[in-house]
Write a structure and sequence with these properties.
Helix 5 (156-159) links the parallel strand 6 and strand 7. By secondary structure, the chain is α/β, with parallel strands linked by helices. The strands form three sheets. Strands 8, 9, 10, 11, 12, 13 and 15 form a seven-stranded mixed sheet that branches. The chain has eleven helices and 15 strands. 44% of the residues lie in helices and 18% in strands. Keywords: Cell membrane, Lipoprotein, Membrane, Signal. Its main location: membrane. Belongs to the BMP lipoprotein family. Residues 26-58 are annotated as: Disordered.
Protein backbone atom coordinates (compact mmCIF):
# COMPACT_ATOMS: atom_id res chain seq x y z
CA UNK A 1 0.00 0.00 0.00
CA UNK A 2 2.85 2.40 0.89
CA UNK A 3 4.59 1.66 -2.40
CA UNK A 4 1.37 2.39 -4.29
CA UNK A 5 0.96 5.71 -2.46
CA UNK A 6 4.56 6.57 -3.20
CA UNK A 7 4.04 5.79 -6.89
CA UNK A 8 0.95 7.99 -6.97
CA UNK A 9 2.92 10.81 -5.35
CA UNK A 10 5.68 10.41 -7.91
CA UNK A 11 3.15 10.69 -10.73
CA UNK A 12 1.58 13.74 -9.08
CA UNK A 13 4.98 15.41 -8.75
CA UNK A 14 5.86 14.63 -12.35
CA UNK A 15 2.64 16.18 -13.62
CA UNK A 16 3.11 19.15 -11.25
CA UNK A 17 6.64 19.80 -12.50
CA UNK A 18 5.51 19.46 -16.12
CA UNK A 19 2.68 21.90 -15.53
CA UNK A 20 5.08 24.35 -13.86
CA UNK A 21 7.46 24.14 -16.81
CA UNK A 22 4.62 24.74 -19.25
CA UNK A 23 3.31 27.66 -17.21
CA UNK A 24 6.78 29.17 -16.91
CA UNK A 25 7.38 28.89 -20.65
CA UNK A 26 4.02 30.51 -21.41
CA UNK A 27 4.68 33.27 -18.87
CA UNK A 28 8.08 34.01 -20.33
CA UNK A 29 6.56 34.21 -23.81
CA UNK A 30 3.82 36.57 -22.75
CA UNK A 31 6.00 38.86 -20.67
CA UNK A 32 9.13 39.23 -22.75
CA UNK A 33 8.92 43.01 -22.55
CA UNK A 34 7.71 43.31 -18.98
CA UNK A 35 9.10 42.11 -15.64
CA UNK A 36 7.18 42.38 -12.38
CA UNK A 37 6.59 40.57 -9.10
CA UNK A 38 4.21 38.11 -10.74
CA UNK A 39 7.23 36.24 -12.12
CA UNK A 40 8.07 34.93 -8.65
CA UNK A 41 7.30 31.21 -8.21
CA UNK A 42 4.41 30.35 -5.88
CA UNK A 43 5.39 28.87 -2.54
CA UNK A 44 3.47 25.66 -3.16
CA UNK A 45 5.62 24.84 -6.18
CA UNK A 46 9.24 24.68 -7.32
CA UNK A 47 10.51 27.87 -5.75
CA UNK A 48 14.13 27.94 -6.93
CA UNK A 49 14.56 31.45 -5.57
CA UNK A 50 16.44 33.02 -2.71
CA UNK A 51 15.71 36.31 -0.98
CA UNK A 52 18.83 38.47 -0.70
CA UNK A 53 18.62 42.08 0.50
CA UNK A 54 15.07 42.35 -0.80
CA UNK A 55 15.94 41.04 -4.26
CA UNK A 56 15.09 37.66 -5.73
CA UNK A 57 17.92 35.60 -7.18
CA UNK A 58 17.27 32.47 -9.21
CA UNK A 59 19.27 29.46 -8.11
CA UNK A 60 21.03 28.04 -11.16
CA UNK A 61 19.98 24.49 -11.95
CA UNK A 62 22.97 22.14 -11.92
CA UNK A 63 23.56 18.41 -11.92
CA UNK A 64 22.37 18.11 -8.32
CA UNK A 65 18.85 18.36 -6.90
CA UNK A 66 17.62 18.84 -3.34
CA UNK A 67 14.04 18.45 -2.08
CA UNK A 68 12.59 19.58 1.22
CA UNK A 69 9.52 18.16 2.95
CA UNK A 70 7.83 20.20 5.66
CA UNK A 71 4.72 19.80 7.78
CA UNK A 72 4.40 23.55 8.22
CA UNK A 73 3.95 26.16 5.52
CA UNK A 74 6.96 27.81 3.91
CA UNK A 75 5.03 31.09 4.07
CA UNK A 76 4.35 30.84 7.83
CA UNK A 77 6.65 33.74 8.70
CA UNK A 78 8.61 31.49 11.04
CA UNK A 79 10.18 28.03 11.09
CA UNK A 80 8.93 26.72 7.75
CA UNK A 81 9.84 29.90 5.89
CA UNK A 82 13.27 30.11 7.50
CA UNK A 83 14.16 26.48 6.79
CA UNK A 84 12.97 26.78 3.20
CA UNK A 85 15.00 29.95 2.65
CA UNK A 86 18.04 28.16 4.09
CA UNK A 87 17.72 25.44 1.44
CA UNK A 88 17.23 27.97 -1.35
CA UNK A 89 20.17 30.12 -0.22
CA UNK A 90 22.48 27.10 -0.03
CA UNK A 91 21.27 25.88 -3.44
CA UNK A 92 21.99 29.28 -4.96
CA UNK A 93 25.55 29.11 -3.68
CA UNK A 94 26.24 25.58 -4.89
CA UNK A 95 24.16 25.64 -8.09
CA UNK A 96 21.59 23.03 -7.09
CA UNK A 97 17.99 22.74 -8.27
CA UNK A 98 15.34 22.77 -5.53
CA UNK A 99 11.85 21.43 -4.85
CA UNK A 100 9.59 21.53 -1.80
CA UNK A 101 6.44 19.89 -0.46
CA UNK A 102 5.04 21.80 2.50
CA UNK A 103 2.02 21.59 4.81
CA UNK A 104 2.08 17.80 4.61
CA UNK A 105 0.49 15.53 7.23
CA UNK A 106 2.56 13.30 9.47
CA UNK A 107 1.04 10.27 7.76
CA UNK A 108 2.55 11.45 4.45
CA UNK A 109 6.16 12.00 5.58
CA UNK A 110 7.48 8.71 4.22
CA UNK A 111 5.52 8.74 0.96
CA UNK A 112 6.56 12.33 0.24
CA UNK A 113 10.23 11.49 0.79
CA UNK A 114 10.06 8.34 -1.33
CA UNK A 115 8.43 10.27 -4.15
CA UNK A 116 11.48 12.53 -4.43
CA UNK A 117 13.86 9.57 -4.09
CA UNK A 118 12.09 7.92 -7.01
CA UNK A 119 12.53 11.07 -9.07
CA UNK A 120 16.30 10.96 -8.62
CA UNK A 121 16.87 13.73 -6.08
CA UNK A 122 20.37 13.65 -4.60
CA UNK A 123 19.57 15.13 -1.20
CA UNK A 124 16.42 15.07 0.92
CA UNK A 125 16.26 17.87 3.49
CA UNK A 126 13.90 17.25 6.43
CA UNK A 127 13.80 20.19 8.87
CA UNK A 128 12.83 18.58 12.15
CA UNK A 129 13.36 15.67 14.51
CA UNK A 130 9.78 14.53 13.87
CA UNK A 131 10.81 13.18 10.45
CA UNK A 132 13.40 10.76 11.88
CA UNK A 133 11.47 7.50 11.45
CA UNK A 134 10.43 8.33 7.89
CA UNK A 135 13.96 9.40 6.96
CA UNK A 136 15.56 6.24 8.36
CA UNK A 137 13.06 4.02 6.56
CA UNK A 138 13.58 5.77 3.22
CA UNK A 139 17.36 5.90 3.71
CA UNK A 140 17.44 2.12 4.06
CA UNK A 141 15.46 1.63 0.85
CA UNK A 142 17.41 4.23 -1.16
CA UNK A 143 21.12 3.81 -0.33
CA UNK A 144 22.23 6.18 -3.11
CA UNK A 145 20.16 9.11 -1.82
CA UNK A 146 21.50 11.40 0.92
CA UNK A 147 19.33 12.61 3.80
CA UNK A 148 19.93 15.73 5.94
CA UNK A 149 17.86 15.85 9.12
CA UNK A 150 17.76 19.26 10.80
CA UNK A 151 17.52 18.90 14.60
CA UNK A 152 18.24 15.21 14.12
CA UNK A 153 19.42 13.19 17.09
CA UNK A 154 23.09 12.62 17.82
CA UNK A 155 22.57 8.88 17.46
CA UNK A 156 20.45 9.04 14.29
CA UNK A 157 23.27 8.82 11.69
CA UNK A 158 24.53 5.61 13.33
CA UNK A 159 21.07 4.07 12.93
CA UNK A 160 21.16 4.49 9.14
CA UNK A 161 22.24 1.07 7.82
CA UNK A 162 23.62 2.59 4.62
CA UNK A 163 25.45 5.47 6.31
CA UNK A 164 23.54 8.02 4.21
CA UNK A 165 22.01 10.19 6.95
CA UNK A 166 23.51 13.30 8.55
CA UNK A 167 22.05 15.17 11.51
CA UNK A 168 22.24 18.97 11.54
CA UNK A 169 22.07 19.90 15.20
CA UNK A 170 21.96 23.52 16.39
CA UNK A 171 22.72 23.69 20.11
CA UNK A 172 19.22 23.83 21.64
CA UNK A 173 20.45 25.13 24.99
CA UNK A 174 22.26 28.04 23.36
CA UNK A 175 19.15 28.83 21.30
CA UNK A 176 17.21 29.10 24.54
CA UNK A 177 19.93 31.18 26.19
CA UNK A 178 19.86 33.80 23.45
CA UNK A 179 16.13 34.35 23.94
CA UNK A 180 16.14 33.86 27.70
CA UNK A 181 18.74 36.54 28.39
CA UNK A 182 16.65 39.15 26.58
CA UNK A 183 13.46 37.94 28.29
CA UNK A 184 15.13 38.20 31.69
CA UNK A 185 16.12 41.79 30.99
CA UNK A 186 12.76 42.88 29.61
CA UNK A 187 10.14 41.26 31.83
CA UNK A 188 8.40 43.64 34.21
CA UNK A 189 5.94 41.14 35.71
CA UNK A 190 8.64 38.54 36.38
CA UNK A 191 6.63 35.96 34.44
CA UNK A 192 7.60 34.74 30.96
CA UNK A 193 6.22 32.06 28.64
CA UNK A 194 7.21 29.44 26.06
CA UNK A 195 4.96 27.70 23.50
CA UNK A 196 6.07 24.47 21.84
CA UNK A 197 4.76 22.67 18.79
CA UNK A 198 5.61 19.03 19.48
CA UNK A 199 7.31 17.60 22.55
CA UNK A 200 10.67 17.02 20.87
CA UNK A 201 14.03 16.79 22.63
CA UNK A 202 15.22 19.91 20.81
CA UNK A 203 12.14 21.87 21.88
CA UNK A 204 12.58 20.77 25.47
CA UNK A 205 16.23 21.80 25.29
CA UNK A 206 15.28 25.27 24.04
CA UNK A 207 12.74 25.64 26.84
CA UNK A 208 15.23 24.67 29.54
CA UNK A 209 17.87 27.04 28.13
CA UNK A 210 15.33 29.86 27.94
CA UNK A 211 14.16 29.24 31.48
CA UNK A 212 17.62 29.08 33.10
CA UNK A 213 19.04 32.06 31.21
CA UNK A 214 16.07 34.25 32.08
CA UNK A 215 16.27 33.28 35.75
CA UNK A 216 20.02 33.97 35.86
CA UNK A 217 19.83 37.34 34.09
CA UNK A 218 16.87 38.36 36.22
CA UNK A 219 18.78 37.54 39.41
CA UNK A 220 21.81 39.46 38.13
CA UNK A 221 19.55 42.48 37.70
CA UNK A 222 17.72 42.30 41.00
CA UNK A 223 14.50 40.48 40.09
CA UNK A 224 13.00 37.02 40.19
CA UNK A 225 11.96 35.61 36.82
CA UNK A 226 9.64 32.61 36.56
CA UNK A 227 8.89 30.74 33.34
CA UNK A 228 5.43 29.22 33.03
CA UNK A 229 5.29 25.50 32.26
CA UNK A 230 5.84 24.79 28.58
CA UNK A 231 2.64 24.12 26.64
CA UNK A 232 2.50 22.04 23.46
CA UNK A 233 0.00 22.35 20.63
CA UNK A 234 0.96 19.01 19.00
CA UNK A 235 0.98 20.92 15.73
CA UNK A 236 3.16 23.40 13.88
CA UNK A 237 0.30 24.85 11.83
CA UNK A 238 -2.50 25.49 14.35
CA UNK A 239 -2.20 29.28 14.60
CA UNK A 240 -5.53 29.35 16.46
CA UNK A 241 -3.87 27.37 19.25
CA UNK A 242 -1.15 29.98 19.40
CA UNK A 243 -3.79 32.66 19.92
CA UNK A 244 -5.55 30.58 22.57
CA UNK A 245 -2.42 29.68 24.53
CA UNK A 246 -0.93 33.17 24.36
CA UNK A 247 -4.11 34.74 25.71
CA UNK A 248 -4.23 32.22 28.57
CA UNK A 249 -0.59 32.85 29.45
CA UNK A 250 -0.97 36.63 29.27
CA UNK A 251 -3.88 36.23 31.69
CA UNK A 252 -1.38 34.54 34.03
CA UNK A 253 0.88 37.60 33.82
CA UNK A 254 3.36 36.54 31.12
CA UNK A 255 4.84 39.59 29.41
CA UNK A 256 7.64 38.01 27.30
CA UNK A 257 7.17 35.03 24.96
CA UNK A 258 9.41 32.66 23.04
CA UNK A 259 8.27 29.71 20.95
CA UNK A 260 9.27 26.72 18.87
CA UNK A 261 6.09 26.10 16.94
CA UNK A 262 6.22 27.75 13.49
CA UNK A 263 2.75 29.04 12.48
CA UNK A 264 1.61 28.61 16.08
CA UNK A 265 4.13 31.30 17.01
CA UNK A 266 2.55 33.60 14.42
CA UNK A 267 -0.82 33.08 16.10
CA UNK A 268 0.68 33.91 19.49
CA UNK A 269 2.16 37.14 18.11
CA UNK A 270 -1.22 38.09 16.69
CA UNK A 271 -2.76 37.68 20.16
CA UNK A 272 0.05 39.68 21.77
CA UNK A 273 -0.30 42.51 19.26
CA UNK A 274 -4.04 42.61 19.87
CA UNK A 275 -3.57 42.70 23.66
CA UNK A 276 -1.02 45.51 23.37
CA UNK A 277 -3.37 47.47 21.11
CA UNK A 278 -6.20 47.06 23.59
CA UNK A 279 -3.89 48.25 26.39
CA UNK A 280 -2.75 51.27 24.38
CA UNK A 281 0.99 50.51 24.43
CA UNK A 282 3.48 47.73 23.69
CA UNK A 283 4.31 46.16 27.04
CA UNK A 284 4.09 42.46 26.13
CA UNK A 285 6.86 41.13 23.92
CA UNK A 286 7.86 38.21 21.73
CA UNK A 287 11.29 36.89 20.76
CA UNK A 288 11.39 35.17 17.36
CA UNK A 289 13.42 32.30 15.89
CA UNK A 290 15.13 30.89 13.85
CA UNK A 291 15.64 33.98 11.63
CA UNK A 292 15.72 37.73 12.21
CA UNK A 293 12.03 38.71 12.18
CA UNK A 294 12.31 42.16 13.75
CA UNK A 295 9.59 44.34 12.24
CA UNK A 296 7.27 41.50 11.26
CA UNK A 297 5.09 42.10 14.33
CA UNK A 298 5.07 45.11 16.61
CA UNK A 299 5.61 42.90 19.65
CA UNK A 300 8.86 41.32 18.40
CA UNK A 301 11.83 42.80 20.26
CA UNK A 302 14.57 40.46 19.05
CA UNK A 303 15.32 37.12 17.41
CA UNK A 304 17.46 34.07 17.84
CA UNK A 305 19.06 33.43 14.43
CA UNK A 306 20.22 30.04 13.14
CA UNK A 307 22.29 29.98 9.96
CA UNK A 308 20.73 26.79 8.62
CA UNK A 309 21.91 27.71 5.12
CA UNK A 310 25.52 27.11 6.16
CA UNK A 311 24.62 23.70 7.60
CA UNK A 312 22.68 22.66 4.49
CA UNK A 313 25.53 23.97 2.35
CA UNK A 314 28.00 21.72 4.14
CA UNK A 315 25.76 18.79 3.26
CA UNK A 316 25.69 19.79 -0.41
CA UNK A 317 29.46 20.08 -0.41
CA UNK A 318 29.78 16.60 1.09
CA UNK A 319 27.39 15.13 -1.50
CA UNK A 320 29.45 16.63 -4.32
CA UNK A 321 32.68 15.36 -2.77
CA UNK A 322 31.30 11.89 -2.11
CA UNK A 323 31.88 12.19 1.65
CA UNK A 324 28.29 12.59 2.85
CA UNK A 325 26.72 10.70 5.74
CA UNK A 326 27.25 9.17 9.14
CA UNK A 327 28.00 12.37 11.03
CA UNK A 328 26.49 15.11 13.15
CA UNK A 329 27.13 18.70 12.03
CA UNK A 330 26.75 20.95 15.06
CA UNK A 331 25.66 24.58 15.03
CA UNK A 332 26.88 26.75 17.89
CA UNK A 333 27.54 30.34 18.78
CA UNK A 334 31.23 29.52 18.68
CA UNK A 335 31.22 28.48 15.00
CA UNK A 336 28.82 31.26 13.99
CA UNK A 337 25.82 29.08 13.21
CA UNK A 338 23.85 30.64 16.10
CA UNK A 339 23.57 34.34 16.88
CA UNK A 340 21.30 37.08 18.17
CA UNK A 341 19.42 39.19 15.66
CA UNK A 342 18.68 42.90 15.69
CA UNK A 343 17.10 44.34 18.82
CA UNK A 344 14.06 46.64 18.85
CA UNK A 345 14.13 50.25 20.02
CA UNK A 346 11.57 49.10 22.58
CA UNK A 347 14.56 47.70 24.47
CA UNK A 348 16.23 50.58 26.38
CA UNK A 349 19.82 51.35 25.37
CA UNK A 350 21.27 50.25 28.71
CA UNK A 351 19.50 46.90 28.45
CA UNK A 352 20.72 46.48 24.88
CA UNK A 353 24.27 46.97 26.11
CA UNK A 354 23.77 44.42 28.90
CA UNK A 355 22.26 41.96 26.43
CA UNK A 356 25.27 42.21 24.15
CA UNK A 357 27.54 41.58 27.14
CA UNK A 358 25.61 38.38 27.94
CA UNK A 359 25.78 37.28 24.29
CA UNK A 360 29.57 37.74 24.33
CA UNK A 361 29.76 35.70 27.54
CA UNK A 362 27.87 32.89 25.79
CA UNK A 363 30.36 32.97 22.91
CA UNK A 364 33.31 33.05 25.31
CA UNK A 365 31.90 30.17 27.36
CA UNK A 366 31.65 32.20 30.57
CA UNK A 367 27.86 32.68 30.73
CA UNK A 368 26.42 31.60 34.09
CA UNK A 369 29.93 30.55 35.25
Amino acid sequence: MKKLLALLLVLALVFSLAACASTTEQTNTNTSDTTDSSDTAETSDTSDTAETDGETETAPAGDYKVAMICDSSISDGGWGMSCYNAMVDAAAKYGWATEVSDSIDQSAYYESIVAYCSLGYDLIYAPGNQYTDAVLQAAEEYPDVCFALLNGGEDTPAQAVNGNVTSLLPDATQVGWIAGALAGLMTETGTIAFIGGMELDTTKGKYEGYKEAAAYVGEQNGKTVTTLDCVYTNSFSASDKGIEFANAMMDQGADVFFGDASAVDSGARQAIDERNKANGSVTIYDIAQPSDLLGQNECIIGSQVTDNASLVGLCMEAVQNGTFGGEVIYGTMQNGALSAGAVSDLVPAEKQDLYQEYIQQMIDGTFMQ
